[in-house]
Task: structure prediction
Amino acid sequence: MQALDELTREGEVELARRIEQGELALVDADEQLVARVREAMARDPALRVYFAQGGFRGLNGYYTSGVLEGAYHYGLFADAS
Result:
């Protein structure tokens, strides 16, 4: 088993900085995606778009639950309740 060095204050600050950068990049990517979808909707009013609301069947709102919610919205699977 490999021994791990104790996290120093400098290492903790660097780790926090990298986490924050990743979170900001994720938020930026999400905002860009929504903007591109809205642009596509403006170009083609017939485009069927559903923005997941979250909380579908008690799921946590992450990507997979959004996909399932959208699939249910468009009738891609039967109600299993």
In short: The mean pLDDT is 82. The CA atoms of residues 66 and 75 lie 14 Å apart.
